[in-house]
Amino acid sequence: MLHEKIENDLKISLKAGEKERAGTLRFLLAAIRNFQIEKKVKDEKFLADEDVIVVLRRQVKQRRDSISEYEKGGRADLAQKEKRELEMLEAYLPTGPAEDQIRGAVQNKMKELGLSQKTDFGRLMGEVMKELSGQADGEMVKKIVEEELNRNEDS
From CA 73, how far away is CA 60, in angstroms rounded? Predict the structure, then answer.
């Protein structure tokens, strides 16, 4: 179980004196506990892997947003710290489908639902994300959905 692995990794990093890694893992475990409270699954000691992945994706998105903001603000030191944390968090995420697999899923949904215009973006995005059930990065799916709808309108 992923949740259990993260807790064990925290213990290992504390013993090894890896303060930054331990801090990142503590923050992640706090987010997981908050998710447990939010979803009212306090009875179980460990959260299911699918739910842990949801929390991880949120944390990864937060780090990416922070990196972008710190770089805009000229705070390279803080951006570097966020990048190191991002790497630690991404190590726990399963590898998602490749870009061509996502593109294939988007094209199939477009044909299946008869969607072809930019105004169909929200519906198409929702359907593709449902189909990929949290396996793919939302930013990647968004980029591909936009490209496919733009290419379809240009044709």
Answer: 20
**Same-domain check for residues 11 and 75:** yes
Render each residue's pLDDT in the chain as its tens digit; 155 residues. 899 999 999 999 999 999 999 999 999 999 999 998 888 776 678 888 888 888 998 999 999 999 999 999 999 999 999 999 999 999 998 777 778 888 888 888 888 888 888 888 888 888 888 887 767 777 888 888 888 888 876 65
The CATH number for 25's domain is 1.10.1510.10
Give the chain's length: 155
Q: What are the residues whose beta carbons fall under 8 Å from the beta carbon of 56, sequence distance 6 or more?
A: 28, 89, 92, 93
- In whole angstroms, give the CA distance from residue 65 to residue 116: 30
pTM summary value: 0.69
* Structural domain harbouring 12: 2-90
- Do the beta carbons of residue 106 and residue 128 sit within 8 Å? yes
Close Cβ partners of 131 (under 8 Å, ≥ 6 residues apart): 105, 109
Would you tell me how many other CB atoms lie within 10 Å of the CB of residue 97? 16
